[in-house]
Amino acid sequence: MPYEGEYATYRPLHRISECERVKGLLARSKLLAAKSACEPRPVTPPENAAPLPRFILAVDGSYAEVDVKTGYPGAKVGYCTVASVLIDLNLVGKLDEQRPTDPAEFRKTEQAASVDAALPGSNVVTRRQNSARASFREELYDLFTETIVDEDDRTNLLSTYEALLALKPTASPQTCPYEESHGCTARFTVGARCTTCPTCGRPVYSTDALRIHERFRDIGTNGEAFGLVMQVIERLLVVHFLRCFERRNLLHRLTSLAFFLDGPLAVFGPPAWLSAAIGKELMRLNAKVQASTGQDLLILGIEKTGAFVEHFTEIDQTETPGKQLFAARQYMLLTDGYIKGRILHSDSQKRYGEDTYFGRKFFYKTRSESRIVAVIPFLTDAQDSLATDDISLYPQLPAVCALLDRVVSSQYANAVSPLIAANAQAAIPLHLGSKVLTQLARALLGTAEDGR
Ligand SMILES: [Zn+2]
Questions:
Q1: Domain for residue 189, yes or no?
Q2: CA 175 to ligand 1 centroid distance, Å
Q3: What pTM, to 2 d.p., does this model score?
C-alpha cells in the first residue's frame, strides 16, 4: 500500500492522466455522446395552493473517529451524533434580515440536542466481550435500547427498529455474526431482542440484522461502519417520530410539519434491506395521514455531494456565458432512463436504486438560485416509480419547492445543517430524552389555535 500522497510525489497526477496506460483505458471506455437522447428539461412547478407547514423537523447526523488510549496500539472510538432541530417558519420570516450564523459555530451549540453515542472502534474491547467487533455489536444494541426520544413516551429506538425488522423478508437468512471469529457456519433469521445462535449458542442481537459488524475491522479505521450507524439512526428517527405521533393521535396535525433529512432517502450497504421496510411503513402511515387530512406527508432528503450534485452543476451551465439552464423555481424530476443515460451508465433492467431508495430524486433551483438535489419519498404504490416525470403523481412537490424557497439561503445550498444554521435563530433544538414529543405536540396543537 502506498502512503498517502506517495503517488503525487512520485509522479504528478496530471502526468498520470497523460500516460499511455490511462489513455489506452479511456480509449476502451464508453464516452457520453455529445448530443444525448435524454436532454435535461427544467419545468416550473404549479403554484403551491396548500398552506405551508409552520415547522420543519430537520434531522442531521455526523460522526468522527477518535484515537483513544487503552494501552493497545491504534485504539479508536467512533462518536456518532444525530441532531434533530425544529425550525419555526413563522420566526424564519421575521428573522430573514439577519445574517446567517456560521454552520460550524452552530454545530457546536447543537451538540447538546443530539442523540450521541460512542461506539468501540478497533482495539477497544468492553469488559464483557473478547473482541472489538463483539463489543461494537453489543454497544450498538444497547444504544438502540437506551435511546429514548421522550420521557413521557419511553418508547425506545429499538422498538421502532424491531417493527421494521418484522417487515424484513425471511427468504435469505444471514450468516452467524461469529462466523469470522469462531468459524460458526450457521445461517438463520435474526429475531427481535437478544437471542442465541441455534448452532454455537452465542448471543445474537436484533441489531445484528443490520450486518454493520460485517464492515467492522479489528485493525485500522472504521469510518464506514460508523457512517452506516449514523445513516441508519437518522432514518430510524424520522420513522420513530412518526410512530410516536401515531400513538398520540397526532397524525392529522402533520400538515403543519415537514421532515428534512440529511442525505438521500435511501439506505446503503449491508443494512439496505431497511429501505424497503421504511418505505412500507411510510406508506402505511401516509395512508392514515391522507385519510384524515387529504394531504401527503412532507418528507425530504437533501443530498450534499455525489454524482447527482455534480451533474446538476454541469448541466446548469450553458454555452451562452452567464445563462443557466435552470431558471429560479424550476425543477426536474429524474426518470430511470435519464439517470442511466446521463448520470450512472447502466444497461440493467433493474430500476435505479431499487434495493436502496425509498424515494426519487429531483433537481430544484430555489428562488434564491441555489441548486438543490433532493429526494421525495414514495408514499403510495403509484408514486413508487421512476418511469415518467409526471409531477401529478406527487401532489406534495409544489409545497416542497415552496418550502425550499423559504428556508434555503443562496449562501448555503445542498445540506441540512447549513439549512439549520442559516435559520439558527428560528431553530428549536430538541433534546432527546427530555420531552421532545410533548414539545412537538404542543407546537403542532398550537398551530391549530393560531388558526392555521
Ligand atoms: Zn453461531
A1: yes
A2: 8
A3: 0.88
